[in-house]
Write a structure and sequence with these properties.
The structure holds 2 protein chains of 2 kinds. By secondary structure, chain A is mainly α. Chain A is built from 12 helices and no strands. Chain A has helices at residues 14-41, 66-73, 75-108, 116-125, 131-144, 151-176, 179-187, 192-221, 224-229, 237-248, 252-272, 274-282. In chain B, 42% of the residues are buried. The chains are: A mainly alpha, B mainly alpha.
Chain lengths: 288, 318
């Protein structure tokens, strides 16, 4: 369709090379800090400030995994990692368990009175509420229920945050599935539930997996609610890191490793499920 | 594609004319999600409004129902005008420089180079958005902090020969947070506009070329008009998200130095959860943030026709 690339070869010369050069420079400048964190994390503490230049491992210094071992074996890091994993998996499972049937209903059934589109927008419209405006009521409600500083509170909060994303993405997925297979089930006397469980769910499995991964990543990254709703027992990785900026901020080797540990899961997920994130962004289902 | 499937679904549901069964299905499939979203988002708004008319503070006791929080916001809070002005400045600058202009330039650049490499660059720009905000903020702090080990100072002192280290967080804090938020915002625009540009029919460009239009003329007369709707969408959506932007600022500058970067969302957080713990006043301030959110969302719905977007993707997602 979009045949923008189909141009005479001669015209690609100078202009395109220039664009390439700019694109590469910007990307390098942008990602140097990430590289720097990797380099810092591999150094001995004494090498932190003595290494000059680009700090390439093996060339500028002898890399060591000591920082990684120290970090991964400290009880606080482990607890934060465990909290983050439990909260993110819990939120993701809950959001999918609620969101998948809802998405299916919005793709397949027609409700009288309210058009399906408006129900979908109802789910999406939750995105417009400023988090900083909802955080005070959430804090007070969780406090009233005695859920402050529990993993359950964070699971509930994150599940509702990713639910609109799951509903919108999966509704699109179900709309794209061929209807005939499910109709066959209904004609043979099956119920909608059979059609959903036996036909639609297996066909949508790849999409559901990708949505679950992205929901996991969003919950993993969440910071504002994690920092207000937890104080000690349910600290997640981002809050754990933020807490050590002040005390350990100058100890780059510490922070570099922690930052990288926090970054690896969501970044891997982003690379795996890029298409779905892009779709979520274009449909307004991802916080911009 | 989406539309035909939807039509078929409507036909299918018309065929099974058992209304009671339909209602049962609705309750079973849609009910739980609907209720959860309702509970967790509608209830907080009402709680917020309710609290804003009380004197709820750190000790969690309500002694009176009052409008003094609103009086305070409108009349006696002397910091508020400066905070609002600062917020508008920050939102405007980030929006115009990064979220639209820079994003558009990036999109034009990535669609001009070959498709595979364009997709690669898009993925690269997606990474900071998908990293935890804390990590992104820490990388910024490392890059701009005032010591001579920061990235900026290393470059300046070694490559440019500057004598003294500079501290951008002290000298130009607002620009630091504009850049930090802008890079993430630009990636949003780039991703949406890249998809939009790729779905512009190629024959428009061929026709323009036949008429002798140069590459700038083609961008100006074909690409930009075709991007009117995605740009409107980006503009409104990003205004909304910048108005409420919070995390990067809190983590990079903490609203400082001397409130130089205390924008509205930070101000609410400081008032509500800071040393004073004035939940009620924070809730009143937060209410004023909900109002523009709702207005902008309605605007987005009207102008850009969100229903059509969801019915059939206008932007082909690649």
């Amino acid at each position: 369709m979009a045949e923008m690339a189909a141009r005479p070869v001669g015209e690609r010369g100078f202009g395109e090379s220039l664009l390439w050069l700019v694109a590469i420079c910007v990307t390098l400048a942008f990602f140097f800090p990430f590289y720097w964190a990797i380099s810092q994390g591999l150094r001995n503490p004494i090498d932190t400030f003595t290494v000059s230049g680009l700090g390439v491992p093996w060339l500028s210094f002898d890399p060591t995994l000591d920082n990684w071992i120290t970090q991964l074996s400290s009880p606080e890091s482990r607890r934060a990692l465990a909290n983050s994993t439990i909260v993110s998996v819990g939120a993701s499972v809950l959001a999918l368990a609620l969101g998948t049937p809802a998405a299916y209903a919005l793709a397949r059934f027609r409700f009288r009175r309210v058009p399906n589109i408006d129900i979908t927008i109802w789910f999406l419209s939750q995105r417009i509420l400023p988090p900083v405006a909802t955080v005070i009521p959430f804090y007070l409600v969780m406090r009233a229920f005695g859920l402050l500083d529990t993993q359950l509170a964070l699971i509930l909060v994150n599940a509702t945050f990713v639910l609109p994303f799951a509903v919108v993405i999966l509704r699109q997925t179900f709309l794209d599935l061929p209807l005939e297979l499910e109709e066959a089930v209904l004609v043979d006397g099956g119920t909608y539930r059979t059609a959903f469980m036996r036909v639609a769910l297996p066909l949508a499995a790849p999409s559901i997996a990708a949505t679950a991964l992205i929901s996991f990543a969003f919950s993993w990254n969440e910071f504002l609610f994690a920092i207000t709703l937890s104080s000690r027992d349910s600290l997640t990785i981002p809050v754990f890191i933020a807490g050590s900026v002040d005390t350990r901020g100058v100890q780059f080797w510490f922070m570099a490793v922690r930052a990288l540990i926090a970054m690896v899961p969501p970044v891997l997920i982003a690379l795996l499920a890029q298409r779905y994130i892009v779709r979520g962004l274009t449909l307004g289902a991802v916080k911009g | 594609m989406g539309a035909t499937a939807e039509d078929a679904a409507i036909r299918a549901s018309a065929r099974s004319s058992m209304k009671g069964r339909e209602r049962a299905n609705m309750a079973m499939f849609l009910g739980p999600a609907f209720l959860v979203v309702g509970f967790f988002f509608v209830v907080p708004v009402f709680v917020d409004i309710a609290i804003s008319f009380t004197d709820l503070g750190r000790e969690l006791r309500i002694t009176e129902i009052t409008t003094k929080n609103y009086e305070r916001a409108f009349v006696s809070d002397r910091q508020l005008p400066a905070v609002i002005w600062r917020t508008l400045w920050y939102v405007g600058a980030t929006l115009l420089i990064f979220n639209t202009t820079f994003g558009l330039l990036l999109a034009l650049a990535t669609t001009s180079i070959s498709r595979t490499s364009g997709t690669f660059f898009r993925a690269v720009w997606l990474l900071p958005r998908m990293s935890p905000s804390v990590v992104y903020a820490i990388l910024w702090v490392w890059s701009v902090h005032g010591g001579d080990t920061s990235l900026v100072n290393q470059v300046l002192m070694h490559l440019a020969g500057t004598e003294e280290p500079i501290d951008l967080r002290q000298t130009s804090p607002m620009w630091v947070i504009i850049f930090a938020n802008g890079f993430i915002g630009a990636s949003f625009a780039m991703i949406i506009l890249t998809s939009a540009i790729r779905s512009i029919p190629g024959h428009l460009y061929h026709a323009a070329r036949c008429d002798g239009a140069g590459s700038l003329a083609r961008v100006w007369h074909i690409t930009l008009p075709q991007l009117r709707w995605p740009l409107t969408y980006i503009f409104i959506w990003q205004t909304l998200s910048l108005l409420t932007s919070f995390e990067y600022i809190l983590l990079i500058t903490g609203g400082g130095p001397f409130r130089a970067t205390t924008v509205y969302a930070i101000f609410i957080f400081q008032r509500a959860f800071g040393s004073s713990g004035q939940y009620a006043y924070g809730a009143a301030l937060a209410f004023f943030l909900i109002v523009p959110g709702v207005i902008l969302a309605l605007l987005l719905w009207r102008i850009s026709n969100m229903r059509r977007l969801l019915q059939r993707p206008r932007i082909e997602v690649q």
